[in-house]
Amino acid sequence: MAQCSNTTLDMLQWRLQSPVFPNNGIKGPFCCSFTINMPNPHEHRVVQAMNISGEHHSQNLRTNVVDSSIDGNKIVGDFNTRKPTINNVGNGRPHDEAVSIVQRSDHPAAIFRSPEKGTLGGYIARRLVQIGITDVFAVPGDSNLTLLDHLIAEPGLNLIGCCNELNAGYAADGYARSRGVGACVLTFTVGGLSALNAIAGAYSENLPLLCIVGGPNSNYYGANPCLHHTIGLPDFSQELRCFEPVTCHQAVVIDLEDAHEQIDAAIVTALRESKPVYILISSNLASIPHPSFIHKPIPFFLIPRKSNPMCLEAAVEAAAAFLNKAAKPVLVGGPKLRVAKACDAFVELADACDYALAVMPSAKGLVPENHRRFIGTYWGAVSTSICAEIVESADAYLCAGPILDDLTSVGYSFLFKKEKAVIVQPQRVVIGDGPTFGCVLMKGFLQSTCQKA
Question: Is residue 130 part of a domain?
């Protein structure tokens, strides 16, 4: 049995045992037995695997072996054929499912460097924990393995291995909806481009998501050699250019001097704008100690946005006057309630004013459907029974966070009259065909309207 202390090899083992082994030219499910020949710990390793048809395959790997010293004893980890522990996620299916959990190991092999030597990989791991991320969705590849080692070593993180990058992106999307922010870790180009559609979806849905990609070795920049698993051009900006339209910020970390600043700027922008960001980490930088990472990073402090008080007061007065003169007003919730963090405020308004309450199809789940005033989903001709009749016969409606696209409006067939509506967007309020009030946050507007309606 081969000996190695690099947690990266545990990830490799998981990849070999997975029913899907993408991006390496090896097809078919694999049995658990394989060997790693390491006559010299600094030479290439050759992984030999046998699939169920008996065909042998081999792949050259370059990994770094790190010797850890505990209580004066030199520790060298065992690399065997056991599978990593699987958490009870979802229905707890066996390992032949698409998603597996790669947990942090308590084995000394998970220790990379002494605590006083901070690394970029450790810094990223701690930042993820600080913003509330406990699970990271990843597909291992040669350019992100060292970074994944550090994420695995962070006690507050679980690394969830996905069968492909698109799944990892959509898993992070769902995680962001539930937890407020999500993260996926991919490999360069072949991985990043595979997840592009999921990142674009998160952008359209206003979800803060960190797309972290392991990039080329920082020493390759300038020389720009042609690399494997790219589109074949000596140009490292190809993936970046693809991500620019669907992310609100891009950070390319190829120098440790400003790495912490770039990482923090990207995370803050994702949280502030509630949009995905793209972060590329050169493959050789994650484990290099640097003085800027020695100390534990100070938690983020985001200055909360506030409404312009005068605009808020004027908008509330105008909306209250508009609604109070109506005989049959209705509340309609839209999908932007979530990005404005105004779901609870919307329900509070429904409690206070006692109006009928409906939601658009893309806002299902944002408002409790057991609310005593809830009448269903408003979706034009295919609305919940009676819901369309109530909404469309109302003489005034307050729509909070609507998106009136062709799908939501059933081909723009809504019998929805703008002159009867108070449209509340995350930072703007429009009263019928009349005035528009900017610099007014939805949450504060709804809370203040509770006292007037």
Answer: yes
